[in-house]
Amino acid sequence: MLSQQLVRRFATSALRRSGNPEVGAKPGHNLPFTLGNRYKLTVYFILYFGSAFATPFLVVRHQLLK
């Protein structure tokens, strides 16, 4: 119990001392894409994960046609 309190105090004080103004900002502010437009985000996710899923199939097709 005491060790948990010490860890919590240290973590809190370390965050305060860090001088980082972004601590406590909105979730997702440090991502390389915006979360505001959900349709655009959905398209990005489909393209990203769809391309990762399709790549092995395209590679096999290319090798078979060679």
TrEMBL record:
Per the record, the domain of life is Eukaryota
How is this protein positioned relative to the membrane?
Single-pass membrane protein
Sorted alphabetically, which SUPFAM superfamilies does this protein's record hold? Mitochondrial cytochrome c oxidase subunit VIIc (aka VIIIa)
DNA-binding listed as a keyword: no
One term under GO cellular component: mitochondrial inner membrane
Transmembrane residue ranges: 41-60
One GO biological process this protein is involved in is: mitochondrial electron transport, cytochrome c to oxygen
What does the UniProt entry say about where the protein is found? Mitochondrion inner membrane
Gene3D superfamilies hit by this protein: Cytochrome c oxidase subunit VIIc
Q: In which pathway does it act?
A: Energy metabolism; oxidative phosphorylation
Q: Name one Pfam family in it.
A: COX7C
List, alphabetically, the CDD domains matched: Cyt_c_Oxidase_VIIc
User: What keywords were assigned to this record?
Assistant: Membrane, Mitochondrion, Mitochondrion inner membrane, Transit peptide, Transmembrane, Transmembrane helix
Record carries keyword Transmembrane? yes
Q: Which family does it belong to?
A: Belongs to the cytochrome c oxidase VIIc family.
Name of the protein in question = Cytochrome c oxidase subunit 7C, mitochondrial
Species classification:
Eukaryota, Metazoa, Ecdysozoa, Arthropoda, Hexapoda
Q: Which gene encodes it?
A: COX7C
